[in-house]
Design goal:
Blueprint: H1 2-7, H2 27-32, E1 38-42, E2 54-58, H3 67-71, E3 78-83, H4 91-100, E4 104-107, H5 126-129, E5 137-142, H6 146-152, E6 159-163, E7 168-172, H7 174-190
Length: about 190
């Protein structure tokens, strides 16, 4: 990538700073080195106004994980489908597989206008909140615990996570919610 950009007469700078999503763009770093443009790799667009132009290059993670086997384990018949940015392309196929298993799916609308239907962020769980009254449970296409734990703070229905990196279906039920609330209260007490 570096060589390609240099061949176009562009002097690239790469940041290895941590990033927490499409809203966490390295404006300070870029302006401090006099950059003309930021290329944000990994997330879709989220920042509407910025001090520098931003080109978003979403990252899509390919998976050969056989979701059909795991989806058959879902005990509920009305499922709210959610996904993080990386797996949004898998929502239609997941919905189709669930319908083949006799389940009904709902995909909600996010709060932020730049997000896609069914998409959740650490700061936007609107896709879940907009359908929570019409579902028995949620299925989140993601990896790690960050978005599943955030979802626990916003909805009261059971949450199932199809974790593509671990290759399994995880359940976040009432005990997970209680444990998270206890952790948060301990953090608050220690402040």
């Amino acid at each position: 990538l570096k060589e390609f950009l240099e061949s176009l007469g562009i002097l690239p700078f790469f940041s290895a700073s941590p990033c927490y999503g499409g809203c966490d763009v390295g404006f300070w770093e870029a302006t401090s080195i006099g950059a003309d443009l930021i290329v944000h790799v990994g997330h879709g667009p989220l920042v509407e106004k910025s001090p520098l132009p931003v080109v978003y290059v979403p990252l899509k993670i390919e998976t050969d994980f056989s979701v059909a086997d795991e989806l058959a384990k879902l005990p509920h018949s009305r499922i709210g489908l959610l996904s993080i940015d990386y797996f949004l392309d898998l929502l239609p196929k997941t919905a189709q597989l669930l319908r083949e298993l006799g389940k009904e799916t709902l995909v909600g609308k996010p709060f932020h206008k730049l997000l896609k239907d069914g998409q959740v962020l650490g700061c936007d769980y609107g896709s879940a909140l907009s359908v929570q009254d019409g579902v028995e449970a949620f299925l989140l296409l993601s990896s790690g615990e960050f978005h599943a734990r955030g979802l626990l703070l916003h909805v009261t229905k059971p949450i199932f996570q199809l974790d593509f990196f671990e290759g399994r279906l995880k359940e976040y039920g009432p005990n997970a919610r209680k444990r998270l609330l206890m952790e948060l209260s301990l953090i608050h007490i220690s402040e």
